[in-house]
Amino acid sequence: MTDNIKNLETMSLPDKDGRFGQYGGSYVPEQLQAVLDEITQSYEAIKDDPVFLKELADLNKHFTGRPSPVFHCKNLSGKIGGADIYLKREDLNHTGAHKINHCLGEALLAKRMGKTKLIAETGAGQHGVALATAATLVGLACDIYMGEVDIKKEYPNVVRMKILGAKVVPVGRGTKTLKDAVDAAFEAYLEDPVNQLYAIGSVVGPHPFPGMVRDFQKVVGIEAREQFLEMTGKLPDNVVACVGGGSNAMGIFSGFLTDPEVAIYGVEPSGRGLKPGDHAATLTLGKPGVLHGFSSYLLQDDAGEPLPVYSIASGLDYPGVGPQHSLLKDLGRVSYVTASDDEAIQAFFELSRTDGIIPAIESAHAVAYAVKLAKEAGEGKTVLVNLSGRGDKDIDFVIENCGKDYGI
What we know:
By secondary structure, the chain is of the alpha/beta class. The chain folds into two domains: 26-60 and 99-209, 3-Layer(aba) Sandwich (Rossmann fold); 66-96 and 214-406, Rossmann fold. Helices cover 46% and strands 17% of the residues. The chain has 16 helices and 14 strands. Helix 5 crosses helix 10 and helix 6 (126-138) runs parallel beside helix 8 (155-163). The chain is globular, with a radius of gyration of 20 Å.
């Protein structure tokens, strides 16, 4: 582990070819590669530009509401016993999740490049709402592709996107969820990559998106590290985040990757059980493959085709994962674990009823594992959870499907 951490300290990730070890890269048609090269050049030109960074920092502070606070869950910690649980409150950001962090960056980049439209996919709707918000702010049109299953499940976010002026495009093929929405958005992007920018919603996709989205999300880890040190006088013993594509996790993990005393856990959805089609535990059960223009761990059949996936959390049901997560798994720096639907729903209600915080179902996966980890770690230890989003979007679905079990 120590050697691998030293390697991370000296690695430039991604490398010039967009690779994180053997993962990442760009597997796209030649015509699209020319467009991606332009995006890469534009991003490289602005990522250290003081004018761009000041504009983004001002929006983070005055529009998003950064820094988001770190909160000590004294009630939950006291109830379960063991380690103290803390939350990095990304749910308090404007639009209700961490997604606004990279959407603002991508929107500003698109504006600088002279694009007229942002196009994207969304699962739980948080990326869609954040991108619709950012598009409105900078004066761009916005099309959001969303699976019909997720539209029904996350309808409050659908309404928000429409109010903000975005066009929500239903996707009715395949499983009618996130992977199919990505396929549809990608196809629409290929029709006009000159005037549109595909604002990818996680640390996935072809280069430069995995590194670029991570860079915009790093603010979470930078803040969390400073805040935790100020609150407790030391670093957390454990850091936990849910992992679908992996943007919220890479955001907070980035603040602690080179600290050997900090154990890091990425929580994937085991859904209804670890049978094909019943989960989306990519790093737990997948193997290296190529999807949506990049290489990573992938849930796939013997022919290399993506397997159907499932999670009660629409933002986690993706058969691939960010390439940097794939490298971190191979290096053993991050432990990738799972939480089931039932465990996530239990954590959803537990946190709501102990500390008055209703989490997104995605984030509840991380809370569920943090509760188990706190019990095992014991008193005197700490667990910092990235609470990536709030649960307003999930309330109708949860009450309809699980309310009776919790007295509602």
